[in-house]
Amino acid sequence: MKKLLLVITILAAATLGCKMLGGSGTSSGGGGTATGGSDPKADVIAASKKFVDLKSFSAKMEGMGQTEIKQQVDYVAPDRYHVMYQGGNAVGMELIYIGNDSYMKSGPKWTKMPGGNATAIPNLRDSFTEQGLKTLTDVKFEGEDTANGKSCLVYTYKNQTPVGAYPFSCKMWVDKASGIPVKNVIDYTNGMLKQMTVNYDTETPVTIEAPAT
Fold it and tell me: Degrees (nearest 5) of the Cα angle 56, 12, 60?
């Protein structure tokens, strides 16, 4: 179980961290705040802050590396996560984290896991502060594109994960209407993960409740 949680921690840091570099600033609300490329770094920071302030979202993640990674992660603020493995060695497994409680489904039944395991994913949000911006480099505006049915501004940059300091390059699609990231593709220079594609749904309502055990 410790190995499983370590893998989850690395994946969450690598994927969510790419979007949450801006810390937990207050959202300005309303439409997008992108500058259209005149200040790419400011755009990335603004998009990251908007993402951090979301009350809920879903993320579909597909990765390539030592093994296939295909999963969906649902999040409800401040500390609820539902991880569904849709490919790879753990296909069919589900995990739910609610505060300090954690649950695992492998087969038809849910099992409550021993105390303390639930801190693996929620604590990652503590790492997404302004400190992460100190390693943000080579931010560029790459033009406009469409992702998940939305008109987007596209940016690329280099950074490192807040957990483990794994260097990566990221291509980010930011919705022009909302200023919120909707997709990113991350490439890693070392570690067990080579590339991860993440598509975000920030509009569909998400509910996460404790399962019957």
Answer: 60
